[in-house]
Amino acid sequence: MLRIGAHQSVAGGVSRAVDRGVLHGCEALQIFSKNGNRWHGVALETAEVRRFRRRLTESGIEPAVSHASYLINLGTSVRALWEQSVAALADELDRAQALGLLGVVIHPGTCTGSTEAEALRLVADGTRRALEAHARRSTMVLLENTAGQGRSLGYRFEHLAAIIDRLDGHPRVGVCLDTCHLLASGYDIVSEQGFQKTFREFERLVGFDRLRVLHGNDSKRPLGSRVDRHEHIGEGFLGLEPFRRLMHDPRFDGLPILIETEKSRIRRRAEIVAADVLDMKNLDTLRKLRG
After folding, report:
1. Domain with 39 in it: what CATH number?
2. What digits encode the pLDDT tens for the residues 30-54?
3. What is the DSSP annotation of 164-233?
């Protein structure tokens, strides 16, 4: 069975994310190890790192991953930005390693040069450099498929395959598939026929051995819209059936499915750990589908 979890806030300290995960009954977890909209993050406190790792072990939550900063663009042809992005990814890997995470989920980037092929080469080269800076470590880079907005990369399985191929099948490179992004980028996973066709194509081009994480999000926009807008589970253009199929398809057994759906807008002090009614709603929906 899939392991159901959510992206949780690290407000009040990174270990608070585990406490929030436990409160929501999470079996897997995603966090930001630093602010997702900034280049530089506050150093992780040693005591917090220890508590985070201890709480993960005590809770049985597994796996846990981080999501990289949205500012990182490994596909850019602007050299200074590319270098900054590589350094930022290396820092994300440092933080994830310290916290004992499976890996760092990252959007491949945006093409700012002439061709997608050249941009994909830049993504692969940047990923390789970041990994080589931490050659003795285990944390993975998890390439996330995208909705295909603008000139973003990763909206086709061929893009993910090309990056992995240029990295010579590096063992520390995996894939994260987002259900909303699949639909938005043109993969029909709503119909039974489309669902099977999509994942046969994924197996042929990338392989299930590369798949490490699923993002479980419904979509506010229809098939092929190329717009990334998450909706609550069962309330968007995906509906419930694709999630039910995922829950009962043995190809996905044991993988984490992490929701990134909208949270309630109740403001709380950073140190407060409280249940989010919308998270509970979406997690409960997935649990019912799993049975």
Report:
1. 3.20.20.150
2. 999 998 788 888 999 999 999 999 9
3. HHHTTT-TTEEEEEEHHHHHHTT---SSHHHHHHHHHHHHHHT-GGGEEEEE--EESS-TT-----EE-T
